[in-house]
């Protein structure tokens, strides 16, 4: 009965969900600056009868947590959406183009918020039928990892008790490589861990015409970069998956000067915690070995951003069955491993969770551009499917846990 109600209500609010997404898209806010976005979400949730509404995380005015049926006995589930935009200048020509210069929703978080609000509206209208509790989590600061300037929103919310009393959690990500309306998910490892690192190599500067009087850190850096790939090719089990990429090299100031130092920065992506733990050891050993051979000195700064996204096996199987019932068996796919990362993984370290992709790619509408691209956009036809999936799974989970 709930499934039929959810479908009908989701369709009834289709246009409103699309309009919400367009509003969020026009007024993007970057990590830990989602103040007006938060205000809008909080206002709607109060209007729809949600309770125990908490605003703000880490001493900011960003982020919202709200409960449905908070006093009801029975199981509980949380639904999460991220909120932050990216510092990218939009190049789309759409009526709802970003009005904030140099900032846009280039990863679909505008859609995530609109979908979760749609699911919230649906669930609020059938709350008397739900044999348990639902918590909504609108999370700031998903982008950017755990730098000193940008704390990961998921980790901060967990520290402030967002998962207390919650049995399971679900979330989605709009995905442009996937056809609109399709779902891709997999039990177990799904998205990789993400770390960053910087190696600083110190030598002795000098004139480019007199290298014998200098100690060239650029030579050490280029040798180090070449040897780095032996970590994946010769030290990681070929049956495992790992990536080690160099993204930035800073060296020198003029064509005829050997610099004092070079800075090499990159990322690692892993699924196996043991490999993730060993990465800084292997990187430092190669840097030290190269520098010892070439009379330089190396320092490593290694930052762990987010752990791998690991979907709970049982919960994911339940979600797959629910999704097949909603959109059809042929439209639910088992995803390959994905090498990008998501801080939803912090929630999954604490309680069972399922995270899935919802396709929004439609070449005819220009919504197949890459995430984090200035031309990224979302096919609005995917939104009502997302609403039905989140609301439907929440209802199915609560019913199944009675």
Overall description:
- There is one protein chain.
- With 402 residues, the protein is of the alpha/beta class.
- It folds into two domains: 2-191 and 308-400, Aminopeptidase (3-Layer(aba) Sandwich); 193-306, Alpha-Beta Plaits (2-Layer Sandwich), CATH 3.30.70.
- Helix content is 35%, strand content 25%.
- It contains eleven helices and 16 strands.
- The chain has helices at residues 2-12, 14-26, 35-47, 109-125, 153-159, 217-228, 230-235, 273-293, 313-327, 345-350, 383-400; strands at 51-55, 64-68, 76-82, 133-139, 168-179, 183-185, 188-191, 193-202, 206-207, 242-251, 257-258, 261-270, 297-306, 309-311, 332-334, 353-361.
- The chain has an eight-stranded mixed sheet, sandwiched between helices.
- Helix 2 packs antiparallel against helix 4 (109-125) and helix 4 packs across helix 11 (383-400).
- It is elongated and about 80 Å long.
- The mean pLDDT is 96.
User: In CATH terms, what is the architecture of the largest domain?
Assistant: 3-Layer(aba) Sandwich
Name the average pLDDT.
96
Largest sheet: 8 strands, mixed
CATH homologous superfamily of the largest domain, by name? Zn peptidases
Distance between the termini: 16 Å
Number of structural units classed as domains: 2
Percent helix, as a range, is 25-40%
* Low-confidence region ranges: none
Rg from alpha-carbon coordinates: 24 Å
Shape: elongated
How big a fraction of the residues is strand? 25-35%
Number of strands: 16
Q: Which structural class fits the helix and strand makeup?
A: alpha/beta
Q: SSE string, helix = H, strand = E?
A: HHHEEEHEHEEEEEHHEEEHEEHEHEH
Strand order of the largest sheet: 1-2-4-3-5-16-6-15
CATH class of the largest domain: Alpha Beta
Total DSSP helices:
11
CATH topology of the largest domain: Aminopeptidase
């Amino acid at each position: 009965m709930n499934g039929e109600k959810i479908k009908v209500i989701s369709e009834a609010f289709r246009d409103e969900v699309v309009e919400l997404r367009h509003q969020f898209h026009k007024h993007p806010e970057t990590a830990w600056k989602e103040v007006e976005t938060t205000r809008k979400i909080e206002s709607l949730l109060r209007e729809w009868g949600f309770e125990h509404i908490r605003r703000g995380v880490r001493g900011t005015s960003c982020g919202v947590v709200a409960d449905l049926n908070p006093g009801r006995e029975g199981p509980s589930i949380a639904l999460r959406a991220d909120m932050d935009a990216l510092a990218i200048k939009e190049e789309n020509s759409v009526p709802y183009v970003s009005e904030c210069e140099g900032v846009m929703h280039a990863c679909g978080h505008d859609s995530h918020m609109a979908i979760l609000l749609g699911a919230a509206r649906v669930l609020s209208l059938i709350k008397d039928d739900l044999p348990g509790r639902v918590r909504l989590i609108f999370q700031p600061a998903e982008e950017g990892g755990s730098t000193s300037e940008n704390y990961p929103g998921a980790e901060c919310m967990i520290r402030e008790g967002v998962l207390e009393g919650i049995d399971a959690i679900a979330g989605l990500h709009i995905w442009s490589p996937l056809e609109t309306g399709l779902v891709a998910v997999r039990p177990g490892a799904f998205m990789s861990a993400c770390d960053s690192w910087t190696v600083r190599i110190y030598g002795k500067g000098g004139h480019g015409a007199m290298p014998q009087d200098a100690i060239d850190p650029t030579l050490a850096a280029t040798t180090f970069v070449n040897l780095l790939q032996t970590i994946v090719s010769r030290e990681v089990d070929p049956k495992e998956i790992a990536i080690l990429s160099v993204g930035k090299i800073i060296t020198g100031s003029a064509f005829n000067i050997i610099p004092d130092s070079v800075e090499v920065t990159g990322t690692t992506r892993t699924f196996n915690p043991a490999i993730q733990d060993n990465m800084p050891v292997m990187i430092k050993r190669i840097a030290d070995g190269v520098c010892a051979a070439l009379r330089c000195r190396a320092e490593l700064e290694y930052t762990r951003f987010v752990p791998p996204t690991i979907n709970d096996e049982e919960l994911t199987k339940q979600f797959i069955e629910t999704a097949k019932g909603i959109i059809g068996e042929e439209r639910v796919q088992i995803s390959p491993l994905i090498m990008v990362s998501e801080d939803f993984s912090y929630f999954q370290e604490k309680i069972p969770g399922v995270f899935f992709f919802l396709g929004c790619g439609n070449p005819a509408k220009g919504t197949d551009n890459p995430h984090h691209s200035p031309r990224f956009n979302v096919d609005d036809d995917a939104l009502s499917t997302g609403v039905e999936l989140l609301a439907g799974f929440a209802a199915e989970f609560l019913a199944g846990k009675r």
